[in-house]
Design a protein that fits this description.
Layout lengths: L3 H46 L5
């Protein structure tokens, strides 16, 4: 016979696991998006500040 305490503890562990996994996924996507945005800005800046040919 399983104790209700263990069931609640297992449910809390599952919820925390899902929350942490979701947080890591969010941070990964946000970092990827920011890195891509910085690369685009750097390319645009290089294009506008490049020396003109004579």
């Amino acid at each position: 016979m399983e104790s209700p305490f263990l069931s609640i503890l297992a449910l809390i562990a599952l919820v925390l696991l899902v929350a942490v996994t979701g947080g890591v996924g969010y941070l990964t996507v946000a970092d990827w998006r920011d890195r891509r945005r910085r690369e685009v800005e750097k390319r645009e800046q290089r294009r506008t500040t490049s020396p003109k040919k004579r």
